Fold these 3 entries.
Entry 1:
Amino acid sequence: MNMTAPDATAFLADWRIDFDELRAFVRPIHDGVTLLLVGSIADGLANELSDIDLLLLGSGSLERRDAVVDVNCEYATTVMKGHEVHVECWHPDVIDRLVARMTAALDSFDDTGRFEPDQSLDDDRLCLLSRIRNGVVVAGADAAAGWRGRCQSHRLPLYLRQHWLHGFRTLRSKALAEGRYGHPGSAQQQFRGASVCLVGALLCTIGETNTYSKWRPRLLQRHRDTIGAETTDVMLRSLFAPRMTASEMATAFGLLDQIEHDVVSAARLSGLTSP
């Protein structure tokens, strides 16, 4: 599960780091600005080698001489008591454009039952929206609530569900085609990619929006009781499946197609309206 502020404080205490030190590293937090702890620590997936990731939202810049200025954001890195600390500051107008694209896609989907791929967002942008939704507030709680409303964070699981379903369907077709044309290695790669996408869509039905594929096996196990043991085991086998013949792959996709049907029906979708 995602961490609460007390959970995150206790985790960082083992590293002798507190929220005050993180705030001091970034800059003074004024009204309308929020600082979020994001990444693996906030998601409850960190270990002793994990970095500390921070996200600053609001007007202004990082106000640091060592900040790297990009077109869309600024970022800086330091080492604090042996642990790397990274902070990003995204320009508000960039975030507004991302949300406008997400909203347009969802409105189109609500009306037509389709997901328009030309309104899709890349992985970095999806990660940003997920971090805004799930980050632990280090400073500026009121501003954080405002940003989550501005970003329509409550709709992100529905958007990501459609995003990952589109990926699953695309890679499914490619995997079966590669298998039919005698390219088992390429078919297997596409099968695993399709499985990763379907797990992402499945997790969205219970409100889990972590966008990193490396965490899919752990998140499946974390939510095993909610998702169901049988579905969890099918998806784990698919993620780590050995090379298959074309016939075996078609059979495997038969199981995944049933899970896709369950995801589309959104029987377990929490707090969202399925079209």
Entry 2:
Amino acid sequence: MLAAFTISYPRLRGPVHDSGQVREMHDPCLSNASQDERYAGPLGRAAAQRVLNGGWAILRIPAAVAGQHAAVLAAAHDFFAQPDVAKAAACDPPTAEGYRPLGAEYSIAVERPDLNESFSVWMQNVDRAFPETAGAAADLQAALLDLAVPLMGIAQTLLSHLAARFAKPGEAPRPVDVTGATYLQVNRYRPAEADREFLQERHEDGHLITIHHCRQPGLEIEQSDGCYVPAPHGPDQVLVLAGELLTMMTGHRIPPVHHRVRRHADQGERLSVMLFVNPSLKGRLAPWVDLDVNAVAAGNPRRFGLPSLDLLLRDE
């Protein structure tokens, strides 16, 4: 059964003039929909519309899913508190399963690595268990796999709503199978020990969507005007962020959501949980929208205040 949820709509305020500044955000304005409405119904369609309009949405999750997130955060705290040698033992390099040390990933340049450790579990490897002797790693893996059940349901159903939006008249929607290459990841930062303004530089995740959960500030989302808003955070909500693959699926109708993680020096530890949703790599996945590259080329000058190419090049 899919988890019930409510959707909130961020309202932005305050004039911002310079790209890169952070704009204030009001507290989320929650819908009046009841918690017993299912994701497959109106609220799911509303979430899909928010992603369609702006690339991201805030979803309020039920208490049971919030509890599963809390279990992951507790297990992650215990795992990352171990000595480095113990964490390094919980790693499977061929599949990038388990632990990744600080410096293994970067957003812009290898010389400026992301300032976080991580632990990941891939859906295609759900039957691959860490040995019981792995202790904290096995506990974290188990907690992540429990959380994967409701989050995968949210992801699959949200993508089904989007597929329906882009289906041609008279044609059935073409859903996306996300059971293979999707993975859950926990990031652990130590902001108080960092010496950079941003723990992660500006980037987009490169997936279909990311379902993100954090209970501490730091994440900032870039808006279409280049300004940033602090992402809402709390125990009872997740963010859905569009990635480059969804942009490709929708013929660039939905842009990828760029974001960054700002350092808050008063945080000794910052933990975040992400479901990175990817299509199955078995078989060829066709986009929902056939992209007319000529039309894109013709319209691109309008992004810079110029007439479109078809006007510039028309015969006199």
Entry 3:
Amino acid sequence: MDVAAQVAVAPPATVLAYLLMHSRRLRLRALALCAALSSQGCGLVDPGDQQEERALTWCSEPASAEVAEVLVSSKDGGSVVSSVILLEAQGEMIAWVQQPDDPERVRRFDYVRDTDGNVTEETLDEGTDGTVEKVTTTIYDEDGQSAGRTVDHDGDGVVDESFVWVYSIPGEVSVVQDIGLDGQADSIQITTLSDDGTEPRRVDEDTDADGTVDASTTYSYTDSGQLRELDIDSDGDLVPDVIVLNEYDEAGRLTRSYQVSDEETVPSFSETYEYDEEGRLVFITYDESDDRVADRSTRMYYDDEGRRVREERTTFENSEASRSVVEYEYGTGTEADRISTDDNDDGSWDSLQTRTACGD
């Protein structure tokens, strides 16, 4: 019997015990990357300093990553928004450190994976004290599907919330939430899948686990498997409150997406998409009301290698247009090494984001 089957027939207390048995012990980790990575030139960079000083004092654990990336954003040349992403040799993320504008507010996420690459544990360290504030543990069945999850919201070693996935009927998945760990379901979500099990057909939400559907979402697809219609019933009266419709061209590319209510035929929101001869998305218009007049638009430009190099974003308000510009610069790869943003199209950059790798 696989894990999902065990979970399906076991009482909630047994499920919780099973999850706890398979979870790893909480690890108190200092908020920093290891010195080994720092010595390679990895760290949170202050772009306000042209010398780009890097901290070399961070370390509390041996280096386990072979690759790291540093993302740095500088707003108006001053405040810092930066992230350091640690990757395994296979390219899977094992840690992510964020430093927002406030240097005292730093967040670190650590990820533990099984041999199949599934995330079995995620820890959050928020602040500068090196204490784990949140731990999420997930187990999987033999098919790699989620079978159970526990959440410790305050890092005290006590599970505060649990989720159990039940695959009792072919093509149907139930997720049961137990907040108080009293063995009673607090909410149930049931997802009905397509015949091949790859796409959702309907999602029912029983927000208080009383056996009554309180909200539902229904998905319809084209013959080629693209999402054609999304019906959202937010109050469980079996009548959709919001309907989202998608249109495609002969090449299967999305050309229009718009939203209507059950009582209206004029879209309350719509987006249109245009492509060039190479099939690249080059223009998007947004109509955020029902006047059939564009409120925003985005035009995109590409280099000879098909990489997006520039975006011109225009907003129309009271017959006046304002524009912002984003430019992307690349090295040898397909991921931008530098992103520059001019918020008001005055010819000067308001924010810069750079991406480097360890050793650069």
